[in-house]
Specification:
Layout (H helix, E strand, L loop, with lengths): L1 E4 L1 H11 L11 H12 L2 E2 L9 H9 L5 H9 L4 E5 L3 E5 L3 H23 L3 H15 L2 E2 L18 H11 L3 E7 L2 E6 H4 L2 H4 L5 H16 L4 H8 L4 H10 L4 E6 L8 E6 L16 E3 L10 H8 L20 E6 L2 E11 L4 E9 L7 H18 L3 E4 L9
Parallel strand pairs: 1-8, 13-14
Antiparallel strand pairs: 2-4, 3-4, 5-7, 6-7, 8-9, 10-11, 11-12, 12-13
Helix pairs in contact: 2-4, 5-7, 6-7, 10-11, 11-12
């Protein structure tokens, strides 16, 4: 029997799974922050700081009592979080480190060979030399190893030691001990990850089961492709085989699309959705999301569930951008209602709002604009600026 799930209920479930349905003003604390990251799975790291770096904004959008120093302590002092790769560079609970050992093995067997061909002769010797230097002398930054005659450039022009640091990190031999002005500081992994997380081992079968099971728990409902994409640890075929092997634990769910399209056949754990009544209504306030928010991680899923088409236009030539360089999605209750172009001008001490675009059918009512302005005030305080400055014509697109 297939369970038919309405679009509204599907949105509510996914928002709750992604930590966006709990009151955002409740006291969080450091322990609560760790639980939050474990619950949503990971937090993407990105260098762009138009308002605030992505990881900080992702966490702040879920809880306005979030403190950056708590994240730093969990990463750099307690070792309860570590940085590595999901679909992109992310902050991950160290409790999951044992499963990343299987990714490290894949990186060493597959990705490293590509780097070896790219760098050519001396690649292995360079990696060994870099590793031994860190083992003997301690943590380093890439700039500490840079050759005198090497010209700066993009990733294709990395100096050999920078390449070695990245390869050794991807292989799990090095870890990011801390960051200085967002620059990575690398050290031996066993000196960064606490022993009780570092020393564990699981079989390949246990790894596959965890990767698929934990993904489905955090998605609520999913296809085998969505299960595979969540952590980006297993292939779609491996997720498909896991679904087939665990059919007695799963039920078939048909997810209604936001735009009236064909319902999406998916899987959920048996018993779904008996506890749907326990799923809280998300707060009605307007919230600004990071472009890298995990709610938007799977752009196609976001479009099906919320009817919201979103793409980051950072790499789109300015003349071809539909909205702007770095435009933030807006969440109100259980709907994605629009996007906003804004930037923190720290020299001037202002959050400059350039443009607001609301989705079709969403009105710029006085109550909605008041809720948005209240959120902008919260964002400004979080970004450390004194005022919100609305540019002339910022709301003209919704007139």
């Amino acid at each position: 029997m297939t369970i038919r799930l309405s679009n509204r209920d599907a949105r509510r479930i996914f928002l709750a799974k992604q930590g966006l349905s709990v009151a955002p003003h409740r006291a969080l604390g450091k322990d609560g922050l760790l639980r939050l990251i474990e619950d949503i799975g990971f937090v993407q790291v990105d260098s762009i700081a138009t308002v605030e770096r992505a990881h900080h904004q992702i966490l702040f959008s879920r809880n306005q009592t979030y403190r950056r120093e708590h994240l730093t302590e969990l990463l750099e002092e307690d070792g309860e979080l570590f940085e590595h790769w999901t679909h992109d560079a992310s902050i991950i609970p160290s409790r999951f480190f044992v499963y990343w050992k299987h990714r490290f093995k894949w990186e060493e067997e597959t990705l490293t060979e590509r780097w070896r061909k790219w760098r050519g002769d001396g690649f292995d010797a360079g990696c060994d030399e870099t590793y031994q230097r860190i083992a003997s002398n301690g943590a380093v930054m890439a700039r500490d190893l840079k050759e005198e005659d090497h010209a700066s450039g993009g990733w294709w022009n990395w100096h050999p030691s920078k390449t070695a640091l990245e390869v050794l990190w991807r292989q799990g031999k090095l870890a990011i001990a801390r960051r200085v002005n967002f620059q990575k500081v690398y050290d031996l992994t066993e000196r960064v990850i606490p022993a009780h997380h570092y020393e564990g081992h699981v079989s390949h079968e246990e790894f596959i089961d965890w990767a698929c099971r934990s993904a489905l728990e955090r998605l609520g409902f999913a296809t085998h492709g969505e299960i595979a994409a969540f952590w980006d640890l297993v292939s779609p075929d491996e997720a498909k085989a896991w679904v087939a092997a665990h059919r007695e634990e799963l039920c078939d769910v048909s997810i209604e699309s936001a735009n009236g399209g064909k319902p999406r056949p998916s899987y959920a754990f048996a018993g779904f959705p008996d506890n749907l009544g326990d799923t809280p209504e998300p707060p009605g306030r307007v919230r600004v999301l990071s472009p890298f928010d995990p709610l938007l991680r799977d752009r196609n899923r976001t479009e099906r569930l919320f009817g919201f088409f979103y793409r980051i236009e950072v790499f789109v030539p300015e003349a071809k951008r539909e909205y702007g360089y770095y435009v933030f999605p807006l969440l109100e209750g259980d709907r994605l209602i629009g996007r906003i172009d804004m930037r923190a001008d720290r020299k001037r001490g202002s959050l400059d709002v350039r443009r607001l675009w609301l989705e079709p059918g969403i009105k710029a009512s006085s109550g909605r604009i008041e809720r948005l302005e209240a959120e902008l005030d919260r964002i400004a305080r979080f970004a450390g600026v004194d005022e919100v400055r609305l540019h002339d014509g910022w709301n003209d697109a919704n007139s």
